[in-house]
Amino acid sequence: SRAQAEVLRLQAEDLKREDGLRHWSLRVRHISDVMKLAFELAIAVIALVALIAVVSAMWMAAHDGGLVIDAFNVPTDMAARGLTGQVVAAQLQDKLSAMQNQTDSARPAASYSNNWGDDIKVEIPDTGVSIGETYHYLAKWLGHQTHITGEVFRTDAGIAVTARTGEDAVTVLGDANQLDSLLQQAAEAVYERTQPYRFASFLRQRGPSQFRRATAIYQQLAVDGAPMDRLWAHVGLSA
Length: 239
What we know:
This protein is α/β, with parallel strands linked by helices. The chain has eight helices and five strands.
């Protein structure tokens, strides 16, 4: 009958509507699952990149054997004239870098137990927690950097410059207008204490007047140096 046909039509429309809603729900669920998977993959990628960055930073810190110069303590009147502790540290850095560049040696860098090579930098004070500060602590914890601290202070006769590497310190005295010369002397003392073989090679290159001093350093290394230093000291003495 017509009534039954109408009922069947309405039921078919309801089924079609329900089927459409079901398909729409499945599509929404599929899109949601895809977005959830994409989000989880993005989180995994970010975590992996962060892990690689941390491991890389720790590896670099563990192999960091550079020379780090901290800002010196200086008199307030010197700082007021622009000779701040960071400026003094930078001048010392320049002198150490110049000596390093002037040193010509056949000895491989990897044979030095304390080798900072060309990695000489001034430590710039940082505040708060930053990537640079975090690496600084990692290098201090895991690495074997050489740190130089020091100060410039006034004496009755002029000024004094002290530079120290760990517990080893050297102080040079002079007139107030001889800061550059005093920093050169301090740099040479640091170079001799931290890189004795290279310093001896540096002296040899300055001419015959420095041969005796260079020979004395080679002789000392041949007796008291590390095994590799003793070997190369004999090479230096035979040259």
